[in-house]
Amino acid sequence: MKKRFLLLMFCFCLGSTLYAQTDSTKHKGLTKTELATAKELYSKMIQSETYISMNETMAKTATSLNGLKLPQSNSPKDMESEASTTDFYRSWLAKNLNKTKFKSVDEGVKAIMKGWNLTKKLMSENKEVFALIGRANEEQGLEIVRTENPYDRLYDLSNKKH
């Protein structure tokens, strides 16, 4: 359960960083047609090779984090490029390496950044579904991601011997 939560938090933290909205107005939500489209696109996305690879990578990373939660920076500049994100996680891992199962800071950074890059790739390949999710109200967002529960599969992947 912890691994699923960590994975979910990583995706949402990265997603919110990559697709942060500048205005704080509440979302009115999607039309019925848009909601149906979002559910269909989401269902296709979670069957993609990129999504499956991202989940496998994140499940392994979650196991190696040994219960630690990846931090989210208070500064968007820390996460605006691969280099700044790498530096941010390198600094965090240097302070927390002994609490993880990673053998070195470099190993941990490589694993985290592989997940970060796969998440960016997934978002790039699925711009329409992420745009729709971004415009959905909270209830619709939950309905979209409930289309199929990929976390059951993730849980199985994270419990495999690595």
Q: How would you name the oligomeric state of the polypeptide chains in this document? A: single chain
Task: Bin the helical content.
Answer: 55-70%
- DSSP strand content: under 5%
The number of strands is 0
- Taken from the alpha-carbon principal axes, the silhouette is elongated
Q: Helix-strand pattern, N to C?
A: HHHHHHHH
Number of individual domains: 1
Poorly predicted regions: 1-9, 17-25
Pairing-aware structural class of the strands and helices?
A: mainly alpha
Distance between the termini: 18 Å
| Main sheet makeup | none
Mean pLDDT over all positions: 82
Question: How many helices does DSSP assign?
Answer: 8
Radius of gyration: 16 Å
Write a structural description.
With 162 residues, the protein is an all-alpha fold. It has one domain (33-68, 79-158). Helices cover 67% and strands 0% of the residues. The chain has helices at 2-18, 32-45, 49-65, 82-96, 105-125, 127-135, 138-145, 151-158. Helix 2 (32-45) packs parallel to helix 7. The longest helix has 21 residues, at 105-125.
Topology:
Blueprint: H1 2-18, H2 32-45, H3 49-65, H4 82-96, H5 105-125, H6 127-135, H7 138-145, H8 151-158
Give a short summary of the structure:
It is built from 8 helices and no strands.
Descriptive labels:
0% strand, 162 residues, disordered N terminus
